[in-house]
Amino acid sequence: MKKLAIISFVIVCIVQGCCTKKDCNSGLYEIVVRDFNESEIDTIILLSYQNNGQFTNPIDSHVVEGYSNGDGTATLSNYSQLDTNRDYKLLFSGLQKEYKLTDFQIGRKSCNSCFPFGQESDFYDVLEGYRLNGELHQGGDGVSISK
Fold first, then answer.
1. How many CB atoms lie within 10 A of CB 15?
2. pLDDT at 11
3. What pLDDT sits at residue 84?
4. Which terminus of the chain faces fewer neighbouring Cβ atoms within 10 Å, N or C?
5. Residue 2 has pLDDT above 80, yes or no
């Protein structure tokens, strides 16, 4: 009887160890820029617009900064998350160029589901694609802008 209890405990531990305990937060929080000088990413204006590709009448704006990742890339900060139901325009202080983000394609992935504790009922959103200045970008972990 004691042997059966030990075997049962080991089996439960193994099954429990296979479960994924992932934070299922959805949202797009990160924009990474590549090959920009520090002076070019010092101050960036992030404008949001209606999701129609017209870029008239901004809905909201944020001043964001780029923080170097030490590998030739920088992560933009000072905004909460991007609403994928909007279009965005980024204006870089050190450049005379604007970058437009449109047509976010969002997928769903399951999380925190494993036998015997539940079915695949928890989901989180993932970015599958977006357009940057009209060019389609697919896959990846988030929005990436190259100079």
1. 13
2. 53
3. 87
4. N
5. no
Of 8, 14, 24, 12, nearest in space to 113 by CA: 24
Residue written as token pair 């989180």: 124
The mean pLDDT value for 91-104 works out to 90
Number of domains making up the chain? 1
3-state SS of 32-52? EEECCCHHHCCCEEEEEEECC
Q: Does residue 56 lie in a domain region? A: yes
- Strand, helix or coil for residue 17: helix
- The DSSP output letter for 5 is H
Whether 9 maps to a domain, the answer reads no
Please state whether the predicted TM-score (pTM) of the whole model is above 0.85: no
Q: Which residues of 56-78 are buried (b: 16+ CB within 10 A; e: fewer)?
A: eeeeeeeebebeeeeeebbbbee
Which residue range is the domain that position 115 belongs to? 25-146
Average pLDDT, the chain: 79
pLDDT at 57: 92
Strand order in the sheet with 135-138: 135-138, 122-132, 98-111, 86-92, 44-50, 60-68, 73-77, 31-34, 143-146
